[in-house]
Write a structure and sequence with these properties.
- The complex is a heterodimer of chains A (167) and B (324).
- Chain A is an all-alpha fold and 167 residues long.
- Chain A has a domain at 68-124.
- Chain A has five helices and two strands, in the order αααααββ.
- Chain A has helices at residues 3-11, 20-28, 38-51, 55-61, 68-133, and strands at 150-151, 158-160.
- The radius of gyration of chain A is 52 Å and the shape is rod-shaped.
- Chain A starts with a helix and ends in a 7-residue tail after the last strand.
- Chain B has 324 residues and is mostly beta strands.
- Chain B has helices at 2-14, 24-31, 109-115, 118-126, 291-301, and strands at 35-38, 41-51, 58-64, 71-77, 83-92, 98-105, 145-148, 152-160, 166-176, 192-194, 198-201, 204-205, 215-217, 220-224, 228-233, 243-249, 252-257, 260-265, 276-284, 307-310.
- Chain B is globular.
- Chain B starts with a helix and ends in a 14-residue tail after the last strand.
- In chain B, 38% of the residues are buried.
- The chains are: A mainly alpha (167), B mainly beta (324).
- The A-B interface holds A 115-116, 119, 123, 141-163, 166-167 and B 48, 50, 52-54, 56-58, 77-80, 82, 84, 86, 101, 103, 105, 136-137, 139-142, 145, 147-148, 150-160, 164, 166, 168, 171, 173.
- Strand 1 (150-151) of chain A pairs antiparallel with strand 8 (152-160) of chain B, so a sheet runs across the interface.
Chain lengths: 167, 324
């Protein structure tokens, strides 16, 4: 029995009445011999069809089969990396805020220090200027306003040991 | 007794006005001498300021009390006219490197004494709207302390609270007082002292209802409007036209000039060892007192007199350059 006959018999559905004429016809039918190069031509045709698409089309429309454990691991790795990157970005912004706060403190303190220095420098310059000018007519010194100063309620003594270090 | 001491201190500090010192600022220069001596110690005063303050707005007066037991320090705030004072006591200890320092507030009686002085009137003229010319209420004082001779003490006296904090006060250094070398005694060392005096012209008291506070020196003087400045001396002075026209006897100096009779009467002997002595008088007709000081004395005498002063000695120690 040829291969095709056997397939037909095996594919016959049970319960159907047998057709004797058809069975005879099938038994008498001889399939033509397949040429030897048929397989080669079919393979060449397939390759011709497949290789005819461009590379970018294969990238766009192509697919890769990946095992589930590897895909799951890749997703987890992607999530972990994203989390770390996001955390670094948050820390950076906080650091920058703290830098801004320090800058503000410096801006407040600097004028106070400058005023102290200016007061003392003005005082010293006045003396120096007088020394340079020599015996000139006496002029009224600029009045320093102490209107808001009040007498102390309690007299205290502050002792500077050694004396030379005292202001 | 204590009140008397404080009044004497006040008088010493503030009332012996010299001709060169006729405003508060000039008085401070004269009476704010940085070096004060007591008990063989020289206390050198200076001002200190911290925070947003300078000591330039404060006038300071220093002086030793009559009994030499305390050094007084007055500080006037030129912006307000308020003033504060304290007394500094310095005691030497068995350890020569140690000092006992006591600070006491100036008693309120001091203000009562000052009010009827030229100084008090200068305060009134300078700050006419002040309700009171008493010193700031007495502050509590610290316990006495023992310090090293080389230590420096600071006493804050004026403060400003708040963000613009500042403090002004006294800074005091101490040193052993070097003994002064001996020198030859001269008549310029004889002080003519007029304590709590009155001026009588032609029998009329012209110096006001109250006594003039103490004036002591070799050349006491008084200015009479329209006449000039009368300078009193116990001796003639070369190159200056002092005339022997007066007498010092007991509590009084008297002389006549231009037909007027002048009597300057104090509570104590004019010359400490008593006696009756010739007095030389010079009239400086060109002298004009500082308007503020003249006005202060007008307030004291209710507009009827005069300016009193302790004339500087240096100018009259030698002939004036123009008359050589």
């Amino acid at each position: 029995m040829k291969k095709d006959d056997r397939l037909n018999l095996e594919n016959r559905q049970p319960g159907l009445p047998e057709d004797g004429e058809l069975n005879r016809l099938l038994a008498s039918w001889q399939t033509p011999e397949t040429p030897g190069e048929l397989d080669q031509r079919a393979l060449a045709s397939y390759r011709r069809h497949f290789n005819r698409g461009r590379l970018w089309r294969r990238w766009l429309a192509g697919s890769i089969r990946i095992p589930v454990p590897i895909a799951a691991g890749a997703v987890l790795l992607l999530c972990a990396t994203s989390f770390l990157v996001a955390r670094d970005a948050t820390s950076f912004s906080i650091t920058r805020k703290s830098v801004n706060v320090v800058t503000k403190i410096v801006e407040v303190q600097v004028p106070v220090i400058q005023e102290k220095i200016v007061t003392r420098v003005v005082y010293k310059n006045t003396s120096a200027q007088k020394a340079k000018e020599g015996p000139t007519p006496i002029s009224t010194p600029p009045r320093i306003d102490l209107a808001d100063f009040r007498p102390v309620s309690e007299i205290k003594i502050i002792v500077s040991h050694g004396g030379n270090d005292a202001k | 007794m204590r009140n008397k001491m404080y009044l004497l201190l006040a008088a010493l500090l503030l009332c012996s006005i010299q001709l060169q010192a006729q405003t508060l600022e000039e008085l401070a220069k004269q009476k704010g001498k940085p070096e004060q001596r007591m008990n063989g110690i020289v206390a050198t005063f200076s001002s200190f300021a911290e925070g947003r303050a300078t000591a330039e707005g404060i006038l300071r007066f220093n002086g030793v009390s009559d009994d030499k037991q305390a050094i007084g320090s007055f500080l006037i705030n030129l912006s307000t006219g308020m003033y504060i004072g304290y007394l500094l006591y310095i005691e030497r200890l068995p350890d020569p490197a140690k000092l006992k320092i006591t600070i006491k507030p100036m008693p309120e009686e001091t203000g009562d004494g000052l009010r009827e002085t030229a100084f008090g009137k200068l305060l009134e003229l300078k700050w006419p709207n002040r309700p009171s010319y008493n010193p700031a209420p007495p502050a509590s004082s610290p316990e006495p302390i023992v310090i090293n001779m080389t230590d420096v003490i600071k006493i804050p006296l004026w403060v400003k609270a708040g963000t613009e904090w500042g403090v002004v006060g006294d800074q005091i250094r101490f040193a052993i007082d070097r003994p002064k070398p001996a020198r030859e005694f001269t008549l310029d060392d004889v002080a003519l002292k007029l304590t709590g005096s009155r001026l009588i012209i032609n029998g009329e008291v012209r110096s006001g209802e109250r006594e003039i506070n103490d004036i002591e020196g070799a050349l006491p003087s008084f200015y009479v409007p329209g006449k000039g400045l009368f300078i009193i001396s116990i001796r003639p002075r070369e190159g200056h036209n002092f005339q022997k026209i007066g007498v010092a006897e007991g509590n009084k100096i008297s002389f006549s000039y231009g037909g007027d009779k002048y009597e300057w009467v104090g509570r104590d002997p004019v010359i400490a060892f008593g006696g009756k002595w010739d007095i030389w008088v010079l009239l400086e007709t060109d002298y004009q007192p500082n308007p503020d000081l003249a006005e202060a004395y007008k307030l004291l005498s209710k507009g009827n007199c005069c300016v009193f002063a302790d004339t500087g000695l240096d100018y009259y120690k030698k002939p004036p350059p123009s008359k050589k």
